[in-house]
Each structure stands twice: as C-alpha cells, then as structure tokens.
Amino acid sequence: MWRSVQFSRYGGPEVLDLVEMTAPVPGVGEVVVEVMAAGLNPGESSIREGRLDNEWPAHFPAGQGSDFAGFIAGAGAGVTGWKIGDAVLGHTVRGSQANFVTVPVGNIIHKPERLPWEIAGSLYVAATTAWQAVSGASPGPGRTVLVHAAHGGVGVIAAQLAKRRGARVIGTASPNSFDYLRQIGVIPVEYGPGFDERLRRIAPDGVDAELNRLGDNGLMNVDSTDTVVLEKIARLIADHQIVIPVAAIYPFERVRDAYRELEAGHAHGKIVLCMMPVEYAHQKVRGIDVRESEVTKDVPNRPPVPPIHEALPPVFGHRHHLAAAGPAAESSHSE
C-alpha cells in the first residue's frame, strides 16, 4: 500500500493524515521516484496553518513536503540520461512526503554515493536558501558575518559557506550548541537579553553582514530546481567539507510527531521522515524500548545497572528490486 501525507483543512499537525495513493504514471519528461527520505521545513507548517493563504493558498486535499531522496522507479517519454534504479535527490511542490513522487527530470540530481539518505532527503530548500543568503552577503577575507540561528537547518549551511569564503563567522545559538559551532569554526554568541553587549565584545568593530530570518517560502511553491547549487552543496557534504546535523529521524507514520518537534523550535539540525526504516534490534529511536547492555547481561551476580539507551540511527531500507521494475511491479507482486 502506497501512501502520501495530506491535509484537508488548515490547522496544526493533527490535520495531517496518511492517505492511500494510486500508482503514479510519469508524463513526458518526468520520472517517478520511490522516496526513501523526505525532510521537513518550517515554511510547510506556515502553509498548512493557513498563514500564507494570501500568497500560496492550499487546494484541498493538499500534499506536503518539498525535499526528497530516493530511487527512480519509472521514466516517461523523452527522458534521457537517467535509468530505473538511479539514486537521486531533488525537490517538488507540496508532495515529497509520499512513497512515490512524480517530478520533471530537471528537478533531480544524482545522489553522491557518500551522501547519507537523511541529509540527501532534506537538502534542497535549506541548501538553496543558505546559498542565496550567503551570495547576497558577499563574505570574504577581512569581513565579519553574523548568522542568526546558526545551528538550524539553514543557518548551519550558511555559516559554513561563509567560512569557506574566508569570512570570520559569528553564529547565534543557545549555549548547548556552542561546542558544535566551535567545531565548524563558528564563534558562538548567545541570543536573548544582553545580546548586543555580548556581540560588541566579540566584534567591537561591528559586523559587515547579518544573515537573519533565513527562509524563502517561494522555494516550496515554485516547481523549478536550482540543480547547479544543489549539486555543489551535495558534493561538499559528501566530501566532508560541510557538516549537516540531523536532529531527528521519524518513521513515515509519525509525521505528526515530527512536525510537533519542528514547531517547538528547539531542534538543532534537520528533521527527516524515513519511509521504510530498518531498525537495529533493541534500538531506541523516539521512544522505542531498549535492552540492557549485552556486555554485562550474562555476568553472574552482577549488580543492578540502569538501562543503557542506544541512540543509533535507523537504516534507510528500500525495495530496490521493486523500484527497479517500477511501481507496477509492486502492484503485481502484492496480488
């Protein structure tokens, strides 16, 4: 059974449902992608809540999601340079959170082999937004750039791009993110009361550029993809030149919980939906029970020990043998 995330009225995460979808058929110049991972973006919540109704109204029932990564499962007429089974990532308009998505070939790029699924599936909106913001700031040697929310999905990319251009980068964050920012070469500063004084101590001569309110809701509502920028950043991440933190990975069925965490505003990094998680035995992922450590389990007369919670990421599973034959193959396989 194939499903997609939809909502039929404006509201919070409670309006989101998983709805059965029909087998997609690609048109001319299109491909069908079996989605492995789909990222969440704050603008999607704004659309679902109706806050952008004047600019980009929803047409019910509405789909959700922009970023995705997966395998090509079908190709329409006129598609060249791609084959069934290719691993790809890309962008669509309000529809990536589904088992299958149909997009023009201009909306996808090849997934670098060393790029993890959870990052590939949550990359386009954050990467393109960060690239645009940094390009407008013109960072370089001798310049100081202030990046707000530097540990967020967009801010962390923007901060690292500015560093790569030689700028001195200061990033606002909560204290529990300071160590991470220092590891990527960003000078942390706590936001909140007293921020101006703290910033003056770090940058007495002021800053040359300030990247604030990093977000472009238009990227989630225009059916075109800047594949040049996407390829550049995907390659930088795959080559470990840029690091992207992942705050949480949720099974597809827990999409409501995923958006609740996103909308709480405390996530440090991307939140991602995994369509077919293959979990480790005894793993703890968002509340799943775990076991005690095997190291001491069979030791006679051992003293009681508290449970050890393993926070191991899930494996991103896939039906590659079915994807290689297209959605129709799964239909016949399940009959």
From TrEMBL:
Coiled coil segments of this chain: none
The Enoyl reductase (ER) domain, residue ranges: 11-273
SUPFAM superfamilies membership: GroES-like, NAD(P)-binding Rossmann-fold domains
InterPro entries: ADH-like_N, ER, GroES-like_sf, NAD(P)-bd_dom_sf, Zinc-ADH_QOR/CCCR
Signal sequence, renumbered to the chain: none
Keyword set, alphabetical order: NADP
Pfam families found in the cross-reference section: ADH_N (PF08240), ADH_zinc_N_2 (PF13602)
Keyword NADP in record: yes
One GO molecular-function entry: oxidoreductase activity
PANTHER family associated with the record: QUINONE OXIDOREDUCTASE
Name under which the protein is recorded: NADP-dependent oxidoreductase
Species per Swiss-Prot/TrEMBL record: Cryobacterium levicorallinum
Organism phylogeny: Bacteria, Bacillati, Actinomycetota, Actinomycetes, Micrococcales
